[in-house]
Amino acid sequence: MAVNIDEGGNCYVNFNQDFTSLSVGYKNAYSLFSLNAVDQQLEEIYSSFGDDICLVERLFSSSLLAIVSMNAPRKLKVCHFKKGTEICNYSYSNTIKTVKLNRARLVVCLEESLYIHNIRDMKVVHTIRDTPINSNGLCALAADSDNCYLAYPGSAVSGELQIFDAVNLNAKTMIPAHDSPLAAMAFSLNGSEIATASEKGTVIRVFSVNDGTKIYEFRRGVKRCVSISSLSFSTCKQYLCCSSNTETVHIFKLEKATVAGDRTSLNQNQSNAVGHKSDDNWMGYLKNTVASYLPYALPTQVTDVFNQGRAFASAMLPISGIKHSCAITTIQKTLRLLVASQNGYMYIYSIPLDGGECQLIKKHDLKNIDQASKEQQIVRQESAPINIAEN
Tens-of-pLDDT digits for all 391 residues of the chain? Predict the structure, then answer.
């Protein structure tokens, strides 16, 4: 999830679809940074000055940008930044909340509707109207064009998640993800799984997009009034990271655990325990036996807590109370946690192989733009505006 500019003048920060670059929007400019060598330095790819940016999204490592300015929050501009040209612009009847892109589709989210564009010619191919009020523009678009799914809240009062096939243009499934309204969502890189969190911010769930079944459930913590701002699957497919308005970023390991109440697992646990009796492992036998029968002795709500996974690793940020966007990716053959913050800094952490506390190895100032790059401003060619009205 992207982190937006607010009234305090903070930055808009967002990673591209495969975490190879970072887009940063400022009050009077925007910049693109390469993430190929962030352990040592942050390479600026491009900067443009003069616009008050509230959204800037890059399509993978291409030259295609989708931009929304604070001066014209209902207008979407699609640009080719290397050529310095504007491809087209669209005007909507309400403020643009979010823009998502992959190689097949561009999605514009308004407060009560979503517009799906064909990325090749930018024409609107479908509109989802009268959605529940979505003031934060919460939605997700899978990066994989073969599993081109769009997710958005199906209710403003509960955690209902709608999955829409953005290629075949039909509803795929509805997932009752949480009791409380949704606060964050993210697809895995291949679009086969989706992670969700609610406004309570304590439990994170991962579902199969294909049939809506729950695959993982993690407990972030027990603190109340925690606002989760970012969920992100790692590029190696082994981890899920989560950031909130607290100073802690949590990393969960995506590994299968024994499901409490599973009769097969119960019998297997008992068999394994009995097989080790001769090795003076009676305490282990008793522990496994009690754990196996625990689901039958306790209420469902209690056993659910026992089944929830805990964080594999965590990183401590130097500041809390603001939004952060997080990602786990491989930098020069080494796995790294990247955290871009609304205050204009990006933090790079190492991830311990055995879990535990991540170590900060680099801090980058995203606001330290080379003023000489002002000469590289986009000189946009005239393009015909396209008005899209609400019916």
Answer: 677 655 445 889 999 999 999 999 998 899 999 999 999 999 999 999 987 888 999 999 999 999 999 999 999 999 999 999 999 999 999 999 999 999 999 999 999 999 999 999 999 999 999 999 999 999 999 999 999 999 999 999 999 999 999 999 999 999 999 999 999 999 999 999 999 999 999 999 999 999 999 999 999 876 666 899 999 999 999 999 999 999 999 999 998 754 433 433 334 433 343 343 334 455 445 545 545 554 454 444 443 444 578 999 999 999 999 999 999 999 999 999 999 999 999 999 999 999 999 999 999 999 875 443 444 444 334 445 566 654 4
324: Cβ–Cβ under 8 A, 6 or more apart, which residues?
3, 229, 230, 243, 244, 249, 317, 339, 340, 341, 342
CA distance 107 to 122: 10
Phi–psi pair at 24, nearest 5 degrees: -130, 125
58 and 16 Cβ atoms separated by less than 8 Å: yes
Q: Where are the alpha helices (DSSP H) in 212-262?
A: none
